Amino acid sequence: MRVVCPKCGREGVVTIHRVRARGRVYEYLAVRHGKETIHHIPRDQVLALEDARELLRKRLEELEAEVEACRKLLSLLEEALSGGDR
Ligand SMILES: [Zn+2]
Predict the structure, then answer these.
(1) 22 CA → ligand 1 middle, Å
(2) How far is ligand 1, taken at its centre, from the CA of residue 63, in Å?
């Protein structure tokens, strides 16, 4: 499965690693970016590409709404300022 790595933000292939220590089995995820680079990350921090895309879309919509609000406020202020000094 291809995912977005929470450590570096790049795309990679995720694999599950199992480690036995003191009679217990530990599972963790590893994101492989190439032959050399592997990032280990907690399970709950991995985002599938679809989820990452959805989050980015939502964030973009929020930002666009904020920009719109700022533009309105700015034009109101400029109107007020230009009307005031004469
Ligand atoms: Zn990474």
Answers:
(1) 29
(2) 26
- Return the closest-CA partner of residue 5 out of 26, 23, 24, 31: 31
DSSP structural state of residue 7: T
What is the per-residue pLDDT across 18-60, written as a single tens digit (0 to 9) for each?
878 888 887 778 899 988 899 988 777 777 777 878 888 899 9
Q: What three-state secondary structure class fits 21?
A: strand
Strand 38-41 to strand 47-48: parallel, antiparallel, or no bridges (unpaired)? unpaired
Residues 6+ apart with CB under 8 A from 5: 11, 12, 31, 33, 39, 41
CB under 8 Å to 7, separation ≥6 — which residues? 31, 39, 41
- Protein residues near ligand 1, an ion, with CB under 5 A: 5, 7-8, 39
